[in-house]
Amino acid sequence: MSRLELPTPSKAQLVVEGLYKDLERRIEASPPGLCPVDISRAFLELCHAQTCGKCVPCRIGLLQLKHLITDVLNGKATMETLDLMERTALSIMETADCAIGYEAANMVYKGLIGYREDYEEHIKNGRCTCTYNQPVPCVALCPAHVDIPGYIALVREGRYADAIRLIRKDNPFPTTCGFICEHPCEARCRRNMVDDAVNIRGLKRMAADYAGKVPPPPCAPSTGKKVAVVGGGPGGLSAAYYLQLMGHQVTVYEMLPGLGGMLRYGIPNYRLPKERLDQDIEAILATGVEVKYGLRIGKDITIQELRAQYDAVLITIGASTDKKLGIEGEDADGVMSAVHFLRDVGKGINPDLTGQEVAIIGGGNVSMDAVRSAIRLGAKKVSILYRRRVADMTALPAEIEGAAAEGVEIRTLRAPSRIETDENGHIKGIYVTPQMISSIKGGRASVKPSGLPDEFVPCTTLIVAIGQNIETEHFEKAGVPVERGKIMAEKFGGFNNIPGVFAGGDCATGPATVIRAIAAAKVVAANIDEYLGFHHEIACDVEIPEPNLDDRMPCGRVELTEREACERIHDFDGIENCMTCPEAKQEANRCLRCDHFGFGIFKGGREKVW
């Protein structure tokens, strides 16, 4: 018999590994609306099963915590039980020999602090505060609550125009979002339990490409009310669209020569072709929305003048200015903000970067847009300087991968220190301080200087993409509450001390995504309508196909393909290709129709109006 042999996993171990994968997918697809107390007990049982059993805190303590949570769920606990749970969890955290015991107890402790009212509701009233009408996960996670299963079913049937009509009930930018939406809806798609999330954004893009020109629905009879919208970005235009459908006459005030805000002047053409953006804007304007271009609030017209002329005023100015680095040499020639750089590109004023070395500071989507635009403008070398790791970048993974594929150098753990200029005051390069990973704060690894000497990165153009600010000076002078650079509107979008004035989108929440701006526009449009004395409803009479009863066998996700990197870096044409009809039908057929099966049946049907 041989002395040694190569170990191979047993059949039992292979099955367990498969179960772990299934569990991982189920956790990933965990829908909103679940009882947090019940979830805590389930995770605690899993952690207890993983312990080695050698130390008392894990072996006995976690079991006792599980029994105490079970008492809470069964209505046998008192308020003193919560104090006992807190003491027990802290004791386990202090005495457990390994991370399994510590983290399991810490999870319970954080729950006792974070959702204590759910524990108390179980104890006092014998029920949970979370909703029993569990929502469809993708719809609940879409900020605008678009009827996602509905339009996917319509795409499957080839009814692309109806799909666009259904999307517009909640989102008047279906084409735009088909290109650039960050698709939070896919994060908890129940299809993750089977294989992978449905490509929801790809199906929206497909519907927009194949639907042709879809006219907007007719407007309600005129109410005689007039509303001014300050800012023609996605939030302002969305609110204008819905208010116009409700019968109010809306006028949009836009300081730039074109509508769209950051969609037009912040997102490059290769990601969002402007002729496709114009399709959405044309549909919005077809409702009768009026536009006045080239007027800057605070300079050409004041908020007080608008209040005198209109029955309601909506502020949706977005976040259109840049943040500063605050380092030596920042005002040198050749240093520019990403906001202004991308705005010039959006206007067709393309700076000549031929043969230049370009550096971009930042790790968000704006940074990726800037570096990939610089490549297309002829830069010899383009580098990203980021003080954290690639894993910490806030840009979409696909954007980071796309930048790397196009030849962008990504230099991480490098914090800007000072800028060096030549005798003419033009930037010659930037010194960066090497960083090292440090403690995790708020779920994100922080960094600190590594102690190594600063490095010099030569560049003739430096683009700063570390965030955006909001122009609030005029509004603050007009009495609009402003705090930490944001307009502080109430949850309903208005102000308690300024009747008739509302605010929404990035200027009220800080820089966010397009779909969040659209969601805010829905809220504020409904509340402006109510303020004006009406209660109009937005509906869509498109009939949703009944789900077919075919088995949903495991099937790979259809991804959108892209043009070759060596080809696309020479122009600003769109880089992403649409699905074909067979691909779209297969992908749409992967949808589990949660609006009919599973969670949806508890809700009693879809929301047809808002």
What is the straight-line distance between the termini? 76 Å
* Alpha-beta classification: alpha/beta
What is the tally of beta strands?
Answer: 18
Radius of gyration from CA coordinates: 27 Å
Low-pLDDT residue intervals, each spanning 5 or more residues: none
What is the spatial order of strands in the main beta sheet? 3-2-1-4-18
Principal-axis shape: globular
Give helix % range. Answer: 40-55%
Q: Which whole number gives the mean pLDDT?
A: 88
Strand proportion = 5-15%
How many helices? The count is 24
Largest sheet: 5 strands, parallel
Structure write-up:
The protein is an alpha/beta fold. The chain is built from 24 helices and 18 strands. A five-stranded parallel beta sheet has the order 3-2-1-4-18, with helices on both faces. A five-stranded parallel beta sheet has the order 6-14-7-8-9. Strand 7, helix 17 (365-376) and strand 8 (381-386) form a beta-alpha-beta unit. Helix 8 crosses helix 11 (200-211). The radius of gyration is 27 Å and the shape is globular. The mean pLDDT is 88.
